Amino acid sequence: MSFADLGLSDKVLQAVTTAGYTEPTPIQAQAIPHVLARRDVLGIAQTGTGKTAAFTLPMLTMLETGRARARMPRTLILEPTRELAAQVEENFERYGTNHKLNVALIIGGVSFADQDAKLTRGTDVLIATPGRLLDHFERGKLLLTGVELLVIDEADRMLDMGFIPDIERIVKMVPFTRQTLFFSATMPPEIERLADMFLHNPQRVEVARPASTATTIEQRLVATGAEGHEKRKVLRHLIRSASELQNGIIFCNRKRDVAQLQRSLTSHGFNAAALHGDMDQRARMAALDGFRSGEVPLLVASDVAARGLDIPAVSHVFNFDVPHHPEDYVHRIGRTGRAGRSGQAFTLASRSDERSLSAIESLIGQPIAWLDGDLASVSDEVEGDEPRRRRGSRRAKETKGGEETKSGGRSTERSAAPASESPRSENRSRGGRRPAAERSRADAPRRDPVREPEPVAVAPSAPPAPPRELAREPVRSAPERARGERRPPRRDEDGETPVGLGSHVPAFLLKPTGFGKSK
Ligand code: AMP
After folding, report:
1. Mean pLDDT of all residues in 143-160
2. Please, are residues 496 and 417 in contact by the beta-carbon 8 Å criterion?
3. What is one Pfam family matched by this protein (predicted)?
4. Which of 40, 58, 92, 135 is most buried (most C-beta within 10 Å)?
């Protein structure tokens, strides 16, 4: 089947040819004719299947007739995240080059005024995240009674993110006679209920869920302890020793870990950006642009922020945490090995991840090989180590829907450095557990800083760590100078000598300033 068989307009077909697409993807071939026939569509498809074009291409065709009126958008697309919304806007730009349509992006984190101006001009396509859309509505700046077509995208993500009450409110404000396109990667009962409620006699189109992972992706598990400092060290080693690493995404389960890990990597000389839901829109777009352009080769991201992002050709994926939902694993590692290219995916796993790992392996229908010894070889969690385990379970409770909740507290870091920069100690690679005395010796803080290998090519614009001989002389107090004493080298939370301030933020910088407080 070709695009020409689907009933799309000439202008859209031209744009598709310019985009270089030769044939429609299965979701496009199935959905487009029904959308053009003004049927409601229930599309079960993940990102990466071409589903955005499955609704943007027929929408462009349909919008060629008619005109937009001020503050009354003709079509509305709801997206769970700002990045996804921005990506849909990019799709309209790409496929709508031959059209003169007004497209407005209504997302949080950017000024209301510009968005208002666009709405006032009249909007053919309104792409929005639910919260900001309702804000505009409540300010009386928007009327949804002219919406002819409504798209609810990534419905299961909306559910995960707690947006369903907002969506229900919005749908009530849109005319009953509208056409509705509803997309979701999965169909849990709550989503089935919503689909029944929002859609009238829908056409169901479904493409296979990527429960299996591409054969071009080499997957490995890397056994590690559960503590952050050890995981960060293992990660650094993996990045440095990775073969053919051009760029990589590092996934964390929690937003606070994204921020902390990015700081830590930067302090160790890597060129890494962060992407998580608490960042403002400008910072998120800057991080993404830097990563897309290749300027910043490492992106530390949370699932929610990274979901559905169209980032071509990622050579490596690192799961700093094992995802709680097995589908997220498939989704994360699907960022590499795209379009027949080869890719590598490494997942750091500790003993507390065993259940999540088996859920992943049963979803993908195959075991994942360990890079260098399995969890039996991890020696940092000693049987009866109650305080650590209790802390682990409390952290698990603080995590909801893949990103931390507001109640998440700060974790305490232990300073014991692993015996080597290798993912596992020499002893562990021999497959045995170390005797207790040896363990306690190795787990005690080391006196000599671990010599870091030279930074690899992934950090082209990062300043190389200065050779030790050139490192700045540590500042000594007057009595120390008088006694000729030297302070031990400063260590960061990983027990290593950081670059600059490292990931440490002095307490005085965290104190509230009182600026901006309302009287
Ligand atoms: P999506 O699932 O909408 O995020 O699309 C994933 C990727 O597929 C994007 O990079 C699109 O540009 C690309 N794409 C969409 N439709 C086609 C097509 N028919 N042929 C080739 N690539 C496509």
Report:
1. 94
2. yes
3. Helicase_C
4. 58
